[in-house]
Amino acid sequence: MIGCLTLKPQLGVLIAVALLAAGLWRTIFAATATALVLAVLPTLAAGLKYWPMFFDRVSEQGDRLLGAIGATDLMVGTFYLMVRLGLPAELALTVQTGLALACVFAVAFVWRSGRVSLDTKAAALLAAIFLSAPYLWFYEAALMAATGLFLLRAGLIRQTPQHLALLFLLWLGAGIQAITVFLGQGDSGFPWAVIYVPVMATALVLCLLQLRSQPQPEPLAG
User: Fold this and answer.
1) In a 10 Å sphere around its CB, with 0-12 CB exposed, 13-18 middle and 19+ buried, how is residue 84 labelled?
2) For residue 93, what are the CA distances in angstroms to 7, 12, 77?
3) pLDDT tens-digit profile of 74-104?
4) pTM, whole model, 2 decimals?
5) For residue range 177-208, what is the model confidence (pLDDT) as tens digits?
6) DSSP labels, the chain
7) Measuring CA to CA, how many Å separate 53 from each of 46, 157, 193?
8) Where are the domains of the chain?
9) Any idea what the Cα angle at residue 89 is, between residues 12 and 87, rounded to 5°?
10) Three-point CA angle 24, 25, 29, nearest 5°
11) Cα–Cα distance between 27 and 47 in angstroms, integer?
12) Is the separation of the CB atoms in 14 and 125 below 8 Å?
């Protein structure tokens, strides 16, 4: 499944960071083999000319997105939010790159740690993927619901008004926005990233705080 996610690479880069940090080599080899198979198939079908054409189209799409990001109402994510708040697209992309690097370190620290549960690691990874991806459409905010589930299973959501509100917003995810899009109701131009980005940032911070709040595990006897 991780190898198949190379078809949507902006959502899979941090998974590689997590696997490397945790030293999950069998998973890394399996994902790499799957990705290679997916790369060979179009090459066999279209020849080596496929790849220059592919990268040309990727570059064109990137230029098109950079010029139209502020008017693309159905996008979410940090890059889109910064542009909607008035930051020039080039500067917003630079800030987004810095945030992505910060997310790389956050994921590496959490996944390398033996102090936190797998559920905490999964929640941190999903939140970091959302915050670091520069190309993110509204339906990909479904990651928020999964993040909320992992936070709940990890015991990081407690019965306080603030935590329950966070869980509600995570579980809601892109639900309201998706309904307004598909039914053609509401203001499709409302920047839902104003809600999504702070909520996912809060989820990531909760996970990072566990690195210092959990006791150091005792060494094995012998």
Assistant:
1) buried
2) 22, 19, 12
3) 888 899 899 888 889 889 989 999 999 999 9
4) 0.87
5) 777 777 766 555 677 888 999 999 999 999 99
6) -TTGGGGSGGGTHHHHHHHHHHT-HHHHHHHHHHHHHHHHHHHHHH-TTHHHHHHHHHHHHHHHHHHHGGG-TTB-SHHHHHHHTT--HHHHHHHHHHHHHHHHHHHHHHHH-SSS-HHHHHHHHHHHHHHH-SS-BGGGGGHHHHHHHHHHHTT---SSHHHHHHHHHHHHTTHHHHHHHHHT-S-TTS-THHHHHHHHHHHHHHHHHHHHHSPPPPPPP-
7) 11, 47, 33
8) 4-213
9) 115
10) 125
11) 29
12) yes
Instruction: Report the alpha-carbon distance of residue 60 to residue 169 in Å, rounded.
Output: 35
Structure-token match 């033996």, residue found: 114
CB 14 within 8 A of CB 104: yes
Beta bridge partner(s), residue 137: 75
